[in-house]
Amino acid sequence: SLQCGIVGLPNVGKSTLFNAISTGKAEAANYPFCTIEPNVGVVTVPDERLEVLTGLVKPQKVLPTIIEFVDIAGLVKGASQGAGLGNKFLANIREVDAIVHVIRCFEDENVVHVEGRVDPVFDKEIIDIELQLKDLESVNKKIQKVEKAVRTGDAKAKAELQILQDYKAALEAGRSARTLAYTKEERESAIGDLQLLTVKPVLYVANVNEESMLSGNEYSEKLREAVKDENAEVVVLCAAIESQIAEIEDPEEHEMFLTEYGLKEAGLDRLIRASYSLLDLITYFTAGVKEVRAWTIRRGWKAPQAAGVIHSDFEKGFIRAEVIKIPDYQQYKTEAGVKEVGKMAVEGKEYVVQDGDVMHFRFNV
Ligand code: GDP
Asked: What is its biological role (predicted)?
C-alpha cells in the first residue's frame, strides 16, 4: 500500500504522533502483504460508508482499507549537506508517496525548541530549504547532462532543458517543485527520473497544545496563512492527547473521552482521511454476507483495473461490473431490492469507478 512519510524538525511531536498511529494499528493478520517494520505504522482508514454497508449486509467480517505512515526522524538544518542523519533521512523521503510535515505550534518551556523559539513558518522553511537544496543538486546534475545533448542538436533535449531551468530557478528562489504548473507529460520527461523530494504532495500537521485543540491558536493560524497558496491542507491536532485517545481500546470509553474534550472525532482520524485523499486515493466497496470490504484505487481507474486490486484474474477475465450507489443501497436495503427498482447499473470495461461505488464483478476464469 501507499506510504506517507512523517517529517519535521526535532521536538515537534513526530514520535508522539507516530506512537498514536502505531497504537491504533490495523490487525496485521488481515493485511499479510504490508511491510511491518518498526518505523512503519499501518492504520485503517475510517469510513462511515463502511459502517452503513455493515449495518445493511451484516457480514461476518469487515475489512477497511489501510495506509502506512513512516516515521522519518533526523532532519536538522544542514541535512542536505549531510548534517545529522542527513542523507539517510533524505533517502527515506524519496521512497514515500506523500509527506506529512509536522510543525510545532505549542509552547512548552520543558520541551526545548531546536531554534530557541516557536515559529511555525520559519520551521517549515528550514525543512523546505533542505529538501529544495537536495532537489537543486539533482536538477543541476541533470542540466549538465542535457546540455551536452543539446550541443549535439537534440531537439527534445532543448525542450527538456527549458523546463529544467525553470525548476532550477524556482528551487533557487525557495519554491518547491510541486508549485510549478507543468503538465504530467512535461514533468515526466524533464524530472520524472529524478524522484524529487519537493514534488511529492504534502500536508501539514499543526501540533498545538490541549487548550487549542478545537480552535487552533495564533501559531496554527500563521501556518495556515503561510501555506494558503500551496493548496495544502493543515490538520490541527494535539499529538499528546491523540496518543492518549489511541490507547483507549473500549469503543464506549473512547467515545466518552472524545465527548469530554468536545471532539467529534479523533484528530488522528482526520489526519488519516486527509492523507488518503492527499495520495489521490478513492475507495470502492464489495458487500457480501461473508465480508464487507473497502478497496483502495487511484482516482480515474477503470473497472477492470479496479477489479485487479482484488485478484489479477478479475482483471484478466473481466466481463462486466454491477454497480450500486450507497444511497440506493440505503433506500432499498438489499442488492435484490436495488436491482428490482432498476437502480443497479451494469457497466463495461470503460467505466471509471467512482468513490463509494459498491461493485460486483463478473469475470471469466
Ligand atoms: P519529535 O522529536 O518530533 O519526535 O518529538 P517528540 O514526539 O519526541 O516530542 C518532543 C517532546 O514534546 C516530548 O517531550 C513530547 O512529550 C512533547 N510533546 C509532543 N506533542 C506535544 C503537545 O501537543 N503538547 C506539548 N505540550 N508537548 C508535546
From this structure: ATPase that binds to both the 70S ribosome and the 50S ribosomal subunit in a nucleotide-independent manner.
Residue 13 assigned as binding residue: yes
Ligand 1 within 6 A of CB of 108:
yes
CB 288 within 8 A of CB 57: yes
20 lines ligand 1 (CB under 6 A): no
Which sequence spans correspond to the domains of the chain? 3-44+65-116+201-278, 129-191, 300-363
User: Where do we find the cell 466481463?
Assistant: 319
Answer whether 330 contacts ligand 1 (Cβ < 6 A). Answer: no
User: Which atom of ligand 1 lies closest to the CA of 110?
Assistant: 14
Task: Give residue 8 CA to ligand 1 midpoint distance, Å.
Answer: 12
First to last CA, the chain: 26
Query: Domain spanning 129-191: which superfamily?
Result: Obg-related GTPase Ych/YyaF, coiled-coil domain (1.10.150.300)
**Which atom of ligand 1 sits closest to the CA of residue 16?**
7
Lowest average pLDDT, out of 26-40, 121-135, 252-266, goes to 26-40
Report if pTM > 0.90: no
Residue 247 has, within 13 A of its CA and on its CB side, a CA count of 9
Question: Which residue from 6, 9, 11 has its CB within 8 A of the most atoms of ligand 1, so it is best to mutate?
Answer: 11
Q: Which residue has the cell 444511497?
A: 327
Beta-carbon contacts of residue 251 (< 8 Å; ≥ 6 apart): none
The whole-angstrom separation of Cα 118 and Cα 111 is: 11
ipTM of this complex: 0.94
Domain 300-363 belongs in CATH node 3.10.20.30:
yes
